[in-house]
Design brief:
This protein is of the alpha/beta class. It is built from twelve helices and twelve strands. The strands form three sheets. It has a six-stranded parallel beta sheet, with helices on both faces. The N and C termini lie far apart (74 Å).
């Protein structure tokens, strides 16, 4: 192909393989045209062997069908495209062993970056082996970034789950809600526990208690919100507000209330967390805490590749947090 383009082998290689060394634009164009005529495609595996990595970003999410993770993925893909990188997505299903196995498999594919967006779990026997795999990955030239909880010594885009939930509780208390219940996730999911802790703290600041009978643990899904609400209603506890610790759970709450003949937002208020796009379109529109999900994904990618230069994401040691915003909508009218 170099002969076809009339250039040296080195120039042809740099033109096609994205070398950091600049190639004369006229030569580069001749190489591309020659490659098209000859039907040449880049051998990515050979590149990976030569460089020690591919141009791939591996993004690990708990559930790609969850709009929370698809929003983050959109941001990662957008930022990666600006840097000439391609994103592959792996789903862990919030299973710690599956996450570890996936990281091990991905290391063999030599991605340039791994981004772990799933919530961390408390007391997992797989956490230390996972850290070992990721440390080895970085030791061989790869880059790692986490989203959500601080995962030092790895770089992190930190989400203020406690602070966002506290602010939501304060806002809801100011609207007159007092008999509050929470549908939260499994206790081992840190994101769920942080949001529950922050919400409880915010209520306490306004003199509102959250006794154990008003807290229901369920799957961190729409179905979990639905089943958790049915369990809450069956208990006979009187409530004027249900806070679900993520928006997809809150959608399940709304469905369960309607099925029980209760009008959401009129008889019982409903609030969620994340501000996924669909919650503006349900009836009534959902009160929630907004996380700039696509921006989170962009920041994670830029942090991992070393192109993040602002104060919203940082290297290990002192990761600043992404700001959240309480959004009051029709599901929580003033009492």
């Amino acid at each position: 192909m170099a002969r076809e383009a009339g250039v040296s082998l080195a120039t042809a290689s740099r033109s096609l393989n994205g070398s950091a060394r600049k190639v004369n634009e006229a030569y580069r164009q001749r190489v591309i045209e020659a490659a098209q005529r000859l039907g040449y495609t880049t051998n990515l595996f050979a590149q990976a062997v030569a460089r020690g990595s591919t141009t791939t970003v591996a993004l690990l999410v708990a559930d790609i069908a969850d709009p929370y993770f698809s929003g983050i993925a959109a941001g990662v893909i957008d930022a990666a495209s600006e840097e000439g990188l391609v994103v592959t997505i792996a789903v862990t299903g919030r299973n710690a062993q599956r996450e570890l196995d996936t990281v091990r498999a991905l290391r063999g594919q030599r991605p340039r970056v791994m981004i772990l967006a799933g919530s961390r779990t408390t007391g997992s026997a797989f956490e230390e082996p996972l850290r070992g795999e990721l440390t080895s990955f970085e030791d061989t030239g790869g880059k790692v970034a986490f989203i959500s909880q601080d995962a030092a010594p790895f770089a992190t885009v930190l989400l203020d789950n406690r602070g966002g939930a506290r602010d939501l509780a304060l806002a809801l208390a100011s609207l007159g809600y007092r008999d509050v219940a929470v549908i939260t996730g499994p206790p081992e999911i840190r994101t769920a526990e942080e949001r529950l802790e922050g919400f409880t703290a915010g209520l306490a600041e306004r003199g509102i208690s959250l006794p154990p009978e008003r807290i229901v643990h369920a799957d961190f899904t729409r179905e979990g919100g639905y089943r958790g609400t049915r369990e809450l209603l069956a208990s006979g506890v009187s409530v004027d507000l249900v806070f679900a610790v993520n928006d997809v759970m809150a959608v399940g709450v709304v469905s369960a209330l309607r099925e029980a003949g209760i009008t959401p937002g009129t008889e019982i208020g409903v609030a969620g967390y994340d501000d996924i796009p669909t919650v503006q379109d349900i009836t009534p529109a959902l009160t929630t805490v907004r996380i700039p999900l696509e921006d989170v994904g962009r920041r994670a990618l830029r942090l991992a590749t070393g192109t993040a230069h602002d104060d919203a994401a940082s290297a290990p040691g002192n990761p600043p947090v992404i700001r959240t915003e309480t959004i009051i909508r029709g599901s929580t009218p003033r009492r």
